[in-house]
Amino acid sequence: MGCLRGRIRTETLSASAIIFSAFYRSLMIYYLTPLAAAGGITEKEIESIEANMKKCQYGLKGDIQNDTV
User: What is the DSSP string of 4-65?
Assistant: First the structure.
């Protein structure tokens, strides 16, 4: 992901946010679907990972609860 962060040149922040959101979502689908199917990870853990990714993407502070995101 670090290689993408500096190379996206857009005038609006929402366009880059959409790109990063799609990138995160595709990584989650690719890596977490087999883990969930095998029973290695629960849905609650997946939601927690997704909330942490959103916090990182939007630059939110660590004291915000995952349920709020």
Answer: HHTT---S-HHHHHHHHHHHHHHHHHHHHHHHHHHTSS-HHHHHHHHHHHHHHHHT--TTS-
